[in-house]
Amino acid sequence: MTPHRGGRRLVPAFLSTAGAAPQDSASLERLSVLTADGGPAPRDLPAAQHALLDVLDGGSLTVVEAAALLRLPVSAVRVLAAALIDRNLLRARAPIPPAARYDPDLLKRVADGLRALKH
Length: 119
Known about the structure:
Number of strands: 3
Distance between the termini: 67 Å
Largest sheet: 3 strands, antiparallel
Structural class: mainly alpha
Oligomer: single chain
Strand content: 5-15%
Order of helices and strands: EHEHHEH
Shape: elongated
Mean pLDDT: 83
């Protein structure tokens, strides 16, 4: 694929997914964590799916991180990942939820206690 002068691809990203849009990709969020199963990839996989498995080799990445490394839109990586999940070549975990809001009163009491210890 020859990049355009601005660094953008000349081939549309939807071609990397072979025009497919599995319904399961809707369950993958931008911050879902992807992990390859570690086994050898079948030879019949499209090049874009091989590239995704290569990026995930030896670790885990979020969908957004994988998209950035592959220089593909997040939506295309979600479709690629969903196809690999369907073939049990990839696992996805829901994003870690944000922490519960802290209790300002508790923080004030901790700070007061630390000040009392200092004196």
